[in-house]
Specification:
This protein is α/β, with parallel strands linked by helices and about 190 residues long. About 25% of the residues lie in helices and about 25% in strands. Helix 2 packs antiparallel against helix 3 (about 45-60).
Length: about 190
């Protein structure tokens, strides 16, 4: 299976059966992302070098205004999409097979986890992977130690309080927090 075929499969949210050609591609890409992450996380780099590593990881252009602090972990890498002026603080882990789309001017706190893959609940199919993307709007602030689950959309200008587990969509211009994350308040507009 070729990478473009896999990415199309993820866009269609098709289940990846354990042991399939798509599953094997996931493992090959994981090995490649780990090589890049090891370099990025253990060696000093200029901003330009770090941007080049992000471009290689994602397989696409990443705007030079994007800052991803080490250590950073991506399980796949090829399905992360950064807007401009995105800041990702240290310790974040992205399981991006299903797609992670981050809007312009988004701030992501320490140790955040974004998981775009679930497993089939049936015991006989438990090793199968079920993808769903995470979409983060523009001007979002995600606090430290937040977990965002597959299929979630976080609306423009939203704030996710530290420690939250986001299992459902977050409306634009709102603050959520808790486990699971719930509405806290409306964010005042300028």
């Amino acid at each position: 299976m070729e990478l473009h075929e896999f990415l199309e499969m993820m866009e269609r949210r098709e289940t990846v059966p354990a042991g399939s050609a798509a599953h094997e591609l996931m493992h090959r890409c994981y090995a490649e992302s780990q090589r890049l992450m090891l370099d990025s996380n253990t060696n000093p780099h200029t901003d330009a070098e770090r941007n080049a590593l992000l471009c290689e990881l994602t397989g696409s252009e990443v705007h030079p205004s994007v800052r991803v602090m080490a250590p950073f972990q991506a399980d796949f890498g090829k399905n992360i999409h950064f807007g401009k002026n995105v800041f990702v603080n240290a310790g974040c882990k992205f399981q991006d097979h299903g797609g992670i789309y981050i809007g312009d001017n988004t701030l992501i706190g320490h140790n955040c986890v974004m998981a775009t893959i679930n497993h089939d609940p049936r015991p006989s199919h438990r090793a199968d992977n079920i993808p769903a993307p995470i979409h983060i709007g523009r001007n979002v602030w995600i606090g430290a130690n937040v977990t965002i689950l597959s299929g979630v959309t976080i609306g423009e200008n939203a704030i996710v309080a530290a420690g939250a587990v986001v299992t459902k969509d977050v409306a634009p211009n709102t603050m959520v927090g808790g486990v699971p994350a719930k509405f806290i308040k409306q964010i005042p507009q300028e």
